[in-house]
Hints:
Layout: H1 2-34, H2 38-48, H3 55-67, H4 71-82, H5 89-105, H6 109-122, H7 127-190, H8 198-224
Amino acid sequence: MRLLLTTTFIMFLCMITNAQNAHDWKREGDKAYRNGDYQTSEEAYRKAELDKKTANGIFNLGNSIYQQERYEEAVRQYEELANRTNANDTDRADAFHNLGNSYFNLQQFDKSIEAYKNSLKLNPKDMATKYNLAQALRQLRLQQEQQQQQQQQEQEEQDQEQNQDQQQQEQQEEEQQQQQQQEPQENQQEEPQQDLTKEEARQLLEIMEQEEKKVQEKLKKAQKGPNKSKKDW
């Protein structure tokens, strides 16, 4: 029985010691955070949460990570708190708010908008969240416009490149066609004239003589003309 009491007493002392250590680490983390030493505050908050994770501890750890611009890691911390069913609405609303801030810095504006809306469901009067939601909506619209302009520019560049390729291909085809048309003429000009054979020369001479005779006969007939009769009066 004494042994049991002793063991129970030791466990109770350990619990008190751990609670004191967690409180001390949290206090050290708060001090470092206020001084802007976010790396030290992160380490202290992690040590404070070794035995038991509390809503406040998760939130503070997320803030320390966020201040070091490690937004993806901060997202995981805020999501853990925001999805806790046993956390109160205020803590969850704050977690959703900072979750929206993390997504905003990651330029994931659609997720940022969703987080801000979830925060306002839990705390509809939070003006800071309303302002951030308006900024996220504006940035999402600008982002979509920029993406649309970029896609349009890329399409225009692609069309221009295709037109240049087509024009170049048409020009090459035209040059090839002109070259093909010039080749037979060049071949004809380069072809040497062949000499007539004796038989071909004789036949050609006979044809020329016959044509000459025909011409001479026509001239003689034209010079004589018809005979005219004279009448005495």
